[in-house]
Amino acid sequence: MSTRNPTEVVVVGGNVEGSMAAAYLKAAFRDRISVTLLQSVPTGAERAGVESSLGDLREFFGFLGMEDEDWMPSCGATYKLAVRYQEWSRPGRHFYLPFEETRQVHGFPLTEWWLHDGPSGRFDRDCFVASWLCDAGRSPRGLHGVTTTESLIPGPYGYHFESAPLARHLTSYAVERGAKVLSGTVVDVRLDARGWIEHVTTAEHGDVRGDLFVDCTGEQGLLLRRALKVPRVPHSDTLPNDSTVTLAVPVDTRTRGIPPCTTVTARGAGWIWTVPLAARLGAGYVYAQEYCTPAEAEAELRAAVGPEADGAEAVHAVLPVGRSRQAWLHNCVAVGASAGSPEPLEESGVSSVHHQLEELVRHFPGSDWHPALRDGYNAFVSRAADAAQEFLMLHYLGSARDHTQYWRDAKTRPVSAGLAGRIARWRVRPPGAEPPRTHRRGRSPQAGVSVLLGTGAITLRPSAALSMVDGAAARAEFTAVRARAQKLVASLPTQYDHLGRMSPLGV
Questions:
Q1: How many whole angstroms separate alpha carbon 459 and alpha carbon 253?
Q2: In 174, 273, 456, 505, which residue has its Cα 20 to 30 A from 472's Cα atom?
Q3: How far apart are CA 190 and CA 210, in angstroms?
Q4: Edge-to-edge strands of the sheet including 340-341?
Q5: What's the CA gap between 309 and 124, in Å, rounded?
Q6: Is the pLDDT of residue 426 over 90?
Q7: How far is CA 437 from CA 13, 390, 394, in A?
């Protein structure tokens, strides 16, 4: 075992995950560690990648000392206040899942008051300001840089962005602070007598040595799974999808507008996502090949996007959903998809990288490589992955759709005893202010309740106590949400206008 502090860090993986790791570690430890970022040549899919974050990614950029204006224009980035779910309950119906916190009245979430005596049939508009802003295509920031989300909306915002430009931006940030970047192909991973990584060998630069190796090689898990043989825990028994097809489509954002939300639309054999960027649209179909061929999925995706998809190259891929049994073994720490990759409906890929990097810094080893630090990091990654799995299961169990065999079968997949028990309790009494098991950072603790309210198959009812509590304060809060939302819709710029003030937008 090493007798000195691990000061030489090698980050393997040149995608956005690797660049985030190199930048974050240099920001955290500055010159106290050396960082070598070993990049591979990106594939076409990586160069055209689109990311959609949770609601706390601004903390990552804040830690690096970056403002939105420093990176968003070069990355085609847009703001994200919520996820818009279309047709998850029935055709023509939609609802929003905002990052905004759920208001509390007399100790009960406003969503539960809505179940008791909501003013309309739209819980998302009655309870959340962000839903109004999404319908109106508004920016969460004002014309003069005022962050409306901080001053008037009780909740954060996330981002949509192109991954390759952000990777370049963060790599430059790391290099400016002393990181070394090597471009090459890993041809071997050499282990010492204990089974720890001694060095990685590249075709271009020979051996690259380090004390701590950070595996950011994505789903291939080049270090953790291939070299150290850490097994993967699949989630394919509980989640239905195994394939994706994606498109990158140039669009006229002046005409289309830029909604501040990701849209996920239920389809016959899965669901389609669309991510609005400053000058193009990212779109993908996540589906199960048991019910739909790749050719059928691509045709359905193109039809959903419309004529603008003509000529856009389709990228087909498998969807290996699951996590590594351990994310940290010996002197190798997995960050991002090498640690685990949830179905993209959870939308936490880039945000998971942020959270894992925070935990890596908190658990960074000393000269004794104390196993409690490794165990703490592993416990965090496992809890987050399992919570993501349960959150995803709520979508399929909760969806009122049953028009195809795919959706009927999705409701018959195995459910853990813990989740089954929680759903049974929620039918009698929705979770209160405490974070439920499915909560994860970057989302409201009440996100699972909002999903069930919107998807429609699992009937929730309010606590019997609400019938004995004065509802005047709740009615006043519903009125306040509506008034605040109408004021913001009238005063805030559209996303297109606000982003155009950062940098001219164009196709």
A1: 39
A2: 456
A3: 12
A4: 232-234, 322-324, 340-341
A5: 31
A6: no
A7: 32, 8, 12
- Predicted confidence (pLDDT) per residue in 244-261, tens digit: 999 999 999 999 999 999
**Catalytic amino acids?**
80
392 residue type, one letter: L
Residue keyed to tokens 């570690």: 25
| Cβ(182)–Cβ(208) below 8 Å | yes
Alpha carbon distances (Å) from 334 to 105, 135, 359:
42, 39, 12
More confident residue, 293 or 436: 293
Give the lowest-confidence range in 168-172, 177-181, 258-262, 440-444: 440-444
Show the 3-state SS of 404-430.
CHHHHHHCCCCCCHHHHHHHHHHHHCC
pLDDT level of residue 299 (50, 70, 90 thresholds): very high
Return the pLDDT at 145: 47
Amino acid (1-letter code) at residue 193: A
Judged by DSSP in three states, 436 sits in coil
Amino acid at position 179, single letter = A
Secondary structure of residue 19 in the 3-state scheme:
helix
Q: What angle do CA 311, 82, 156 make, to 5 degrees?
A: 125
Under a CB-based contact definition with an 8 Å cutoff, are residues 507 and 252 in contact? yes
Instruction: Cite the DSSP H helix spans in 64-162.
Output: 68-71, 110-117, 123-127, 129-136, 148-151
Integer CA distances (angstroms), 66 to 58, 366, 491, in order: 9, 29, 27
Give the bridge partners for 183, in sequence order. 39
> Tokens at residue 9, please?
């860090």
> 3-state SS string over 264-297?
EEEECCEEEEEEECCCEEEEEEEECCCCCCHHHH
DSSP string, 218-275: GGG-IIIIIIS-PPEEE-TTT----EEEEEEEE--HHHH---SEEEEEEETTEEEEEE
* pLDDT of res. 204: 92
**How many whole angstroms from its chain centre is CA 430?**
25
Per-residue pLDDT tens digits for 6-17: 999 999 998 999
The type of residue at 388 is A
413: phi then psi, degrees, rounded to nearest 5 = -70, 160
- Say if residue 137's pLDDT is above 90: yes
Q: Could you give the percent of the chain with pLDDT greater than 90?
A: 77
Written as six digits, the tokens of 328 are 């940290």
